[in-house]
Amino acid sequence: MADSCVTFDAMVNGLPVHAIYPEEALQQVLLPLLRQLTALWKKKGSRLVVFLAAPPGAGKSTLAAFLEDLSGKTPGVHPLQAVGLDGFHYPNAWLDTHTTRRDGKEVLLRTIKGAAETFDVDALQRKLAALRAGNVRFPIYDRRLHDVVPEALPVTGDIVLLEGNWLLLADPRWGVIAPFADFSVLILCEEALVRERLIGRKVQGGLTREQAEAFYQDSDAKNVHRVLTQSREADLTLVLSGDGSLTPVPEKKEGRRPQDPAPSAAVQQSAPNRGRKAADRRDHLPDGSAIV
């Protein structure tokens, strides 16, 4: 852990969190990001929408809440509002009656809740379109009910930071939301890092280590790998280290993305999926428009 760090205590998604961010990450990454978003908002002259994507266990919800808190008390930075993707899960009643194919088998969507197929992308697209015109209300995911609550969260911020696993997924179904992002951030990491975090959460929740490892292998591992290997290129890509450090990936040169610092195999494999320019990704949108 870095000698100097900043702590953040808050309720995130209904759960208490205690996060620690190295001072270096704060000064060299997070504050410059907030200043950049403020400048983009001023230049645009209207609401700015930012996508923050990361694999499960990478701390994206906590980071989004921290950025919201930090933006509200930093001079020269315009406050942002952090909102989550989880409210756009299909309701349990829908998941209980619909299936998809996975590993060659027909599976009930409820059994893979959290996977990209269990989200209502059409509803998300409609809300993002409405957000361009004015204030809206987003659904939330209630972890006590383990279900969605419609129209629960007023979204009124001038800068809206939407965080979720699948926001940059290189998949035609998710491509329809790409034009609504004015700026995007992707967090990459070693799969082993989030594996330990996610298993640790289950152990804290009462599972044995063996049970937690089995759950990870059956559920979380597939989602982690998919985010790391099938996400589109972002405007800003950060590599998360075990000590909480966030290292920006240098901009690619001549159309090729450089290697990440200490990349895992998953990070290396993901480069072809994210290394294409917007002009080469028109096939991801049904109207043929480029993703920018």
Q: Can you put this structure into words, describing what you see?
A:
This protein has 292 residues and is an alpha/beta fold. The chain has one domain: Rossmann fold. Helices cover 35% and strands 25% of the residues. It is built from eight helices and twelve strands. A six-stranded mixed β-sheet has the order 4-9-3-10-11-12. A two-stranded antiparallel ribbon has the order 1-2. Helix 6 packs antiparallel against helix 7. The longest helix has 22 residues. The relative contact order is 0.16.
Helix count equals 8
Determine the strand fraction and express it as a percent band. Answer: 15-25%
Tell me the total number of β-strands.
12
Question: Please, what is the CATH homologous superfamily?
Answer: P-loop containing nucleotide triphosphate hydrolases
What layout of secondary structure does this protein have?
Layout: E1 5-12, E2 15-22, H1 23-44, E3 48-53, H2 60-71, E4 80-84, H3 92-95, E5 99-102, E6 105-108, H4 121-133, E7 136-142, E8 147-155, E9 159-164, H5 172-175, E10 183-189, H6 191-204, H7 209-230, E11 236-240, E12 246-248, H8 265-274
Parallel strand pairs: 3-9, 3-10, 4-9, 10-11
Antiparallel strand pairs: 1-2, 5-6, 7-8, 11-12
Helix pairs in contact: 6-7, 7-8
